[in-house]
Amino acid sequence: MRFADTLRFARDAAIGYPLRTTLSVLAMSIGVAAVVVLTALGDGARRYVVGQFASIGTNLVIVLPGRTGTGGFNPANAITTTPRDLTIDDAAALRRGSAVRRVAPLAVGTSEISYGGRLREIMVVGSTADFLPMRNFTLAQGSGLPDNDWNSGPPVAVIGAVVRDELFAGEPAVGKLIRIGDRRLRVIGVLESVGQGLGMNTDELVIVPVALAQAMFNTNSLFRILVEARGREAIPLAREQSAEIIRQRHHGEEDVTVITQDAILETFDKLLGALTLGVAGIAAISLAVAGILVMNVMLVAVTQRTGEIGLLKALGAPARTIRLAFLTEAAMLSSLGAVVGYLLGQLGALALRFAFPIFPAYPPDWAVIAGLSTALATGLLFGVMPARRAARLDPVEALMKH
Amino acid sequence: MSLIELTGIERSFHLGDSVVHALAGLDLRIDAGEYVAVMGPSGSGKSTLLNLLGLLDRPNAGHYRLEGQDVTTLSGDQLARLRSERIGFVFQSFHLVPRLTAAENIALPMILAGIAAKERAARVARALKDFALDQRAGHRPDQLSGGQRQRVAIARATIMRPALLLADEPTGNLDRHTGEEVVNLLEGLNAQGVTLIVVTHDPGLGDRARRRLLMEDGTLRRDTAAEASA
Fold this sequence. Notes:
The structure holds 2 protein chains of 2 kinds.
Chain A: H1 3-16, H2 18-54, E1 60-65, H3 75-79, H4 88-94, E2 100-115, E3 118-127, H5 131-134, E4 139-142, E5 156-159, H6 161-168, E6 177-180, E7 183-191, E8 196-197, E9 200-201, E10 205-209, H7 210-216, E11 224-229, H8 235-249, E12 256-260, H9 261-304, H10 306-314, H11 319-355, H12 365-392, H13 395-400
Parallel strand pairs in A: 3-10, 5-7
Antiparallel strand pairs in A: 1-11, 1-12, 2-3, 2-6, 2-11, 4-7, 5-10, 6-7, 8-9
Helix pairs in contact in A: 1-11, 2-9, 2-11, 2-12, 9-11, 9-12, 11-12
Chain B: E1 4-15, E2 18-30, E3 35-39, H1 46-53, E4 61-66, E5 69-70, H2 76-86, E6 87-90, H3 102-112, H4 117-130, H5 146-158, E7 164-168, H6 176-191, E8 195-199, H7 203-206, E9 211-216, E10 219-223, H8 224-229
Parallel strand pairs in B: 3-8, 3-9, 6-7, 7-8
Antiparallel strand pairs in B: 1-2, 1-4, 4-5, 9-10
Helix pairs in contact in B: 3-4, 3-5, 5-6
C-alpha cells in the first residue's frame, strides 16, 4: 500500500466513525490545551515577577544593614554582635567605588500627610536626586529632588500620582505647601503613575530629601543603600567594592549584606520556572490519559471493524499494511487532537491576556513543543497495541464477524 | 499441471474438549479454467475447504500446491501476496466496506497492492463498465441494491485478474432473479478462463457447474469428474 493511500484510508476510516473520532480528538486536544494554558499561566507569572523586579532599576546592587552570611571568626565579632547602622556618610563613601555609577541612600517610614483639611497615612521615602533615575521613575510634573549636600535636606517633596489625586483633587499640586507629620514641605514634583511594584505602591509614595526623612523619623540610620553599577559586567565588582568600602568604614567588621538584583531575579526565575515545569507535568498526565483513551478507541475500532480487517486480509493485505493503517489512524487522531488543542490553548492564553492585560500569559516554546510531541508520542505508543491486534486477527474468524 | 493439487489434507478444530475433523485426508485436483461447485450439508467441511483454497487457513497436515508451488510452507506475507495476485473472493454477504463508494471498493485490492492511482482509475472505469455499474460508481453500499452490491464485490474480486475465483454462496442473499444475473456473470468470467469454485447449498446453482464435488464429514463423497473418467 502506498503511503498516500494509507493516509487516505486512515482518514476515511476516521471520518467513517465521527463520534469516536470526535471524542478521542477532544480528549487529546484537552490534554494539549491544558499544557499550553497552564504553562502560559506559569510562565506568565514568571515573566510578570521578573519584569516587576527588573522595573526597580537596572544593574542594581543593594546594601542592607546586618549580616546574614556565615563567616569565620572575626576579632571584631568578639567585641560586638550588634551590627552598625548604615549612615548617609556610608552611602556617600560608596560613590568612591570605580565600578559604581550612582548611589541612592534610602530612609523609609510612615507618616501622615495633610493638605487643605484632607489627611492620610503615607509611606515617606528619604533619598537623593539620583533615586528617581535609578528606579526608573519619571516625573509627570515639576522637578525631582535637588542635587545638593546629602546631609542638608531642604523641605521639599515629590509626591506620587495617587497622593496628588487624593489631596489636590485636580488642582495643580506643584508649588503647594503640604504638611507631613509636623513639618511643612513644598511639593516640587509629581511622579508619573506606574501602578503596583513589588508590593509597594509607588503611586502612594512621598519622596523627600534623605536628611529630612531621618530628621522626621528621628534616626540617623538608613533602610537600604541602592548602588548602580556602571554596567552589567561591573555588577560583581560593584558588589565587592561596596562590601569592602563599608567594611573599612565599619572598622573591619562585615556587618552588612550586599545583594545583587541579578541574584534575586535568578532566584525568582528558577522558582517560577520550576513551578511552570510542575504545572506542565500535571497537564502532561491528562495527555497520558488522552493517549489511553485513544488506545481504547482504537481497540474498539479493531473490534468494530473485525469483518473489514478479515476482508483486507482476504484481499491480500499483509500484516504490515494493516498494522500501518491502524497506526496511521491513531497518529492522525492524536495529531489532529494536538493541533486542535494547540489552537484551543493559544486561544485560552489569548483570553487570559485579554482579561488580565498586565499578565504576560504566553506559553513558552518548550512547553508547546513538548506538549505536541508528547501528544503524538502517546498516540502512537498507545496505537501500537490495537494495530498489532488488528494485524494478528485470524482472517477466517474475522471474516465471519460481519 | 493442475491449478490446484491437494494431497492428504487434514484440518481439525478444537471445540472445547472435542476435536472436529473438518477435513480428513482430502485429495483433490482442479485444473485451470474449471467450473466447480462444492456442495454438501452444513458442517461437511466445504467452507473450510474454501478457506484453505483461498489461503486464509492452513492445513494441519498434507500439501497444497497452487500453480505447482507448495503453499503450505509459505509465510503469512507470501500468502497475502498470492491472495492479492492470484485469488479473488466473492462472499455471501458481499463484504463491501460501508464507508467506501462502489468505485473505491472495487479499487481496494489495487490500493492494497500498491498500484498507482492512474492505473487504478483506468481499471476501475473499465470494471464499472463491464459490470454495468457506471451509474453507481459514487454510491456507497447502502445506496446499492443486493444485485449491485454483489456485482461490485465480483468486480473487486476480479480487478487484480486472478487465476482463481472463490465464491461462497454468492446468491445466498439475493432473490432468484438477481441471483441468476450474478451466476451468469460468474459463468461469463469462467468462460474467459478464470477458474471458478462455488460453494453452495442450492442444488439449482450446483447443477450448473461442469464439475460437482459433494462433501460429507470432511471427505469427498462424490466427484462428477472422477465418475466421468471412470
